[in-house]
Design brief:
- The protein has 55 residues and is mostly helical.
- The protein has a domain at 24-48.
- Helices cover 80% and strands 0% of the residues.
Length: 55
């Protein structure tokens, strides 16, 4: 009986860490996407930027 409880707790802990890892990855992906979009918008708003010469 304790073995089954122990295995259940281990599975639950693994699931929790998986959810936490996924949430962390999702937050980073959203943050990086947001920063990338803001950077792109800033670059576009400055046509004299050496990175993007206006055609």
């Amino acid at each position: 009986m304790p073995d089954r409880i122990n295995r259940h707790l281990h599975t639950h802990r693994f699931t929790s860490s998986l959810i936490v890892a996924f949430a962390d990855w999702l937050a980073r992906a959203i943050t990086y996407s947001f920063i990338h979009q803001v950077t792109e918008a800033l670059i576009r708003s400055f046509p004299l930027s050496p990175k993007r010469p206006s055609a």
